Each structure stands twice: as C-alpha cells, then as structure tokens.
Amino acid sequence: MRLDAEEFDRALERELALLPPERRVLFSLRFEEEMTVGEVAAALGIPEGTAKSRLYALVHDLREKLKEYEKL
Predict the structure, then answer these.
(1) What CA–CA distances, in Å, run from 40 to 2, 3, 7, 12, 58?
(2) Three-class secondary structure of residue 30 per DSSP
(3) N or C, which terminus of the chain has less Cβ within 10 Å?
C-alpha cells in the first residue's frame, strides 16, 4: 500500500507541475499552506466566491486526472 501512496504522490506532483502558475498558486495556498478559502481569496485579491469556484474546478480536474488512484 505504501508503494501505491508514493506512486500517487509522484502522479500528483506531475499534474501540479503541468498547471498554469495561477492554478498552482491556488493549490499551494489552500492545500500546502493550509489557508482557509477566505485567506486564499484575500491573498489573491479575489472575492471568496471566486476562490471557492476556482478551487472546486481545480480539485475536480485533478480528481479526474488522478481517478486511477481513487481506491487508495
């Protein structure tokens, strides 16, 4: 199982590297820096609703690209 988790981590890193810079920053602020949606919105100077919708779309896209790892 550990090998599968490592494989997933590598696949996620590959997908993140392919993201446009603005989407990579969005991911980083929310999931690596563990900021709240409100904090992400403030940091990016966008409305909270916009941050929520962009995060939703980003997570949806990543989930689709990484769906083979869903059962880990």
Answers:
(1) 32, 32, 29, 21, 14
(2) helix
(3) N
Angle, helices 48-65 vs 2-18, to 10°: value is 120
Question: Rounded to whole angstroms, how far apart are CA atoms 10 and 66?
Answer: 11
- Kindly give the parts of the chain with pLDDT less than 50: none
Tell me the CA distances in angstroms from 33 to 18, 37, 69, one per residue in order. 20, 11, 24
Whether the CB-CB separation of 2 and 60 falls below 8 Å is answered with no
pTM for this predicted structure: 0.87
